[in-house]
């Protein structure tokens, strides 16, 4: 296990400590929890001035001849690089272009949905779909897929450090120790069965809830986005989330050998739920603000469409899923190496010769 089992155990233990801290905060009042953070940083405990990204949405503002693109430059902040690198890391974790793209679009829709609750979510249309979804998120996902392709095609030759003659080779070997020992591709196959479909939907739901918790936690606890506590939480979520996704995929892909939900996955689920409970307790009035009418109609139509498609796919037209499974098995058979095919042919021929020999002996014994 790379980089080293001690690293993953450290983040597992840290995630447990973080969960215990969340439970402690959950039983405090909102004001006590905010003042408690002053023991970490004396600058905390004061209300935030939320930045609105909406307002004037002109790409080219002719009323400001000195800087007509000032609306674009005004939107450039810490969230631009975090969007890009965040989706690059998420792609390395999920290893699926479709799931990452769906989650990227879904989060932009959630920002539209919840902009009446958090001013931070109020953005211009081009900020949502051009800067975030297309440029930052899209390029991050694209870079992640290129990285996945490189890691899957890269040959892994491990040698002892003292068997490498050059100092450059030794340094490269030390750096490789912090990378993967080998690379496993994820094929989630969400539409292959109803169980996998519901499990992938659950993965997307929990991931989006974790994303929303990031914004709501800093809002209710009065934490500035670049504060070290936010950064440490994101680092913990990356490492703990990577292990959780790996455990979750193993449970879906190999149910015979992996029959239980991973312990890191359990802790991550507990963290997401506890964070949401903290948000709901500290600022219940904000998260219960009623949705606008057109947003409500949109989600009713979307959820009904998802439900009807699920019924049609897995109950009214189940043959598509069965045919995909058969095609997958045929692809596995076609991908056998010549040596494997030769061994299989030899086994088949030996069985056939043995059957013929037994039949010949039986004929000799009959009168």
TrEMBL record:
- Identify the EC number(s): 2.7.8.29
Q: Which domain of life is it from?
A: Eukaryota
- Cite a single GO MF annotation: L-serine-phosphatidylethanolamine phosphatidyltransferase activity
Q: In which pathway does it act?
A: Phospholipid metabolism; phosphatidylserine biosynthesis; Lipid metabolism
According to its UniProt entry, one GO biological process term is: phosphatidylserine biosynthetic process
- The regions listed as transmembrane in this protein's record are 6-27, 97-114, 129-151, 197-216, 228-245, 266-284, 296-315
Which residue ranges does the record annotate as region Disordered? Answer: 340-367
Query: Keyword Phosphoprotein on this protein?
Result: no
Catalysed reactions, as listed in the record:
1-(1Z-octadecenyl)-2-(9Z-octadecenoyl)-sn-glycero-3-phosphoethanolamine + L-serine = 1-(1Z-octadecenyl)-2-(9Z-octadecenoyl)-sn-glycero-3-phospho-L-serine + ethanolamine; 1-octadecanoyl-2-(5Z,8Z,11Z,14Z)-eicosatetraenoyl-sn-glycero-3-phosphoethanolamine + L-serine = 1-octadecanoyl-2-(5Z,8Z,11Z,14Z)-eicosatetraenoyl-sn-glycero-3-phosphoserine + ethanolamine; 1-octadecanoyl-2-(4Z,7Z,10Z,13Z,16Z,19Z-docosahexaenoyl)-sn-glycero-3-phosphoethanolamine + L-serine = 1-octadecanoyl-2-(4Z,7Z,10Z,13Z,16Z,19Z-docosahexaenoyl)-sn-glycero-3-phosphoserine + ethanolamine; 1-(1Z-octadecenyl)-2-(5Z,8Z,11Z,14Z- eicosatetraenoyl)-sn-glycero-3-phosphoethanolamine + L-serine = 1-(1Z-octadecenyl)-2-(5Z,8Z,11Z,14Z-eicosatetraenoyl)-sn-glycero-3-phospho-L-serine + ethanolamine
Q: Where is this chain's protein located in or outside the cell?
A: Endoplasmic reticulum membrane
Q: Which UniProt keywords apply?
A: Endoplasmic reticulum, Lipid biosynthesis, Lipid metabolism, Membrane, Phospholipid biosynthesis, Phospholipid metabolism, Transferase, Transmembrane, Transmembrane helix
Predominant cellular place of this UniProt entry's protein = endoplasmic reticulum
Q: Name one GO cellular component term.
A: endoplasmic reticulum membrane
Tell me which family the UniProt entry assigns to this protein. Belongs to the phosphatidyl serine synthase family.
Give a short account of what the protein does.
Catalyzes a base-exchange reaction in which the polar head group of phosphatidylethanolamine (PE) is replaced by L-serine.
The protein in question is named: Phosphatidylserine synthase
Upper taxonomic classification of the species?
Answer: Eukaryota, Metazoa, Ecdysozoa, Arthropoda, Chelicerata
């Amino acid at each position: 296990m790379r980089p080293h089992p001690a690293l993953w155990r450290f983040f597992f233990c840290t995630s447990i400590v973080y969960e215990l801290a969340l439970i402690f905060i959950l039983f405090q009042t909102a004001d006590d929890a905010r003042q408690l953070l002053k023991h970490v940083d004396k600058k905390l405990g004061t209300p935030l001035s939320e930045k609105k990204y909406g307002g004037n949405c002109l790409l080219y503002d002719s009323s400001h001849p000195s800087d007509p693109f000032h609306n674009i430059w005004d939107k450039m902040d810490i969230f631009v690089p975090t969007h890009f690198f965040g989706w690059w890391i998420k792609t390395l974790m999920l290893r699926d272009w479709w799931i990452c793209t769906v989650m990227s679009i879904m989060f932009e829709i959630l920002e539209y949905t919840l902009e009446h609750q958090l001013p931070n979510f109020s953005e211009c249309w081009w900020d949502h779909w051009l800067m975030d979804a297309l440029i930052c998120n899209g390029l991050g996902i694209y870079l992640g897929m290129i990285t996945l392709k490189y890691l899957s095609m890269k040959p892994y030759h491990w040698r002892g450090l003292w068997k490498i003659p050059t100092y450059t080779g030794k340094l490269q070997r030390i750096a490789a120790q912090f990378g993967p020992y080998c690379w496993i591709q994820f094929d989630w196959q969400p539409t292959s069965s109803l169980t996998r479909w519901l499990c992938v939907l659950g993965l997307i739901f929990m991931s989006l809830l974790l994303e929303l918790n990031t914004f709501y936690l800093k809002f209710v606890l009065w934490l500035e986005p670049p504060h070290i506590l936010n950064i440490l939480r994101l680092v913990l979520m990356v490492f703990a989330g990577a292990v959780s996704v790996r455990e979750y995929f193993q449970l879906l892909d190999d149910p015979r050998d992996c029959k239980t939900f991973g312990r890191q996955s359990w802790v991550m689920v507990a963290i997401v739920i506890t964070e949401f409970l903290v948000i709901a307790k500290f600022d219940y009035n904000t998260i219960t603000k009623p949705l606008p009418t057109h947003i409500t109609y949109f989600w009713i139509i979307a959820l009904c469409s998802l439900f009807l498609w699920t019924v049609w796919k897995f109950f009214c037209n189940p043959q598509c899923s069965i045919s995909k499974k058969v095609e997958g098995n045929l692809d596995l058979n076609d991908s056998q190496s010549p040596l494997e095919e030769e061994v299989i042919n030899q086994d088949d021929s030996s069985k056939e010769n043995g059957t013929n020999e037994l039949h010949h002996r039986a004929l000799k014994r009959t009168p």
